[in-house]
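Allow me, if you will, to draw on your knowledge of protein folds for a short while. I have a record of one protein: its chain in single-letter code and its fold written as discrete structure tokens. Kindly check, if you would, that the fold set down in the tokens agrees with what the sequence suggests. Thank you for your consideration; the sequence and its tokens are set out here:
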Amino acid sequence: MKKKLLSITVFLFCCLSMLANNTLSNEKTPQPQINLIKSVNPPTTSLANITLCEGEELKLTAEDAGTGATYKWTKGASTKSSVKDLIINNVALGDAGIYTLTVTKNGCTNAVDIEVKINKNPDTPTLGNIVASCSNPSSTKISNYDANVTYIFTPTGPSVNATTHLVEGMTIGTSYTVKAKKGTCESGDSTSFKNDAMLPTPKAIIKLK
């Protein structure tokens, strides 16, 4: 599974009270900012969020608060990191949730939340094969067909019939793999498969002795 590195930089200012709408009550200090970097849309609500697919890498980075600052990333009651960076490789559905970054310096503390959403990858396509006969070449069918995904073949060319779920457009004797894609999330590749040519019909000849 191809990993997509997503990074979030959180700017925090010490000893300021954060209101429910993520604005600050101190007029002399700039408002905290959450910069979402690389393919992450700016939040439209007061709670920043990021969306990943299973198997991708999550990287959250706190802005350096200076000498003497400490950092803690938590999810619920669980501490996930005690340094500026929180990195989770190969995220799973269970990694979804609200993460809190708490920064402490000179006895002052500030915190900010971000919601991490994890989308399930589509199922890897499973294949059924109808063997070649004397009247037809072999054919391949996607047994776990899902109308909500897009099927991507390697090499390109084939497609899936939405009614019969048969793979069409294959070149006889060429090996293919297929994967399913939904949004930005992809399954793993299927096993390799190919269609065989129709079996030759034997000649029926009577020879006189």
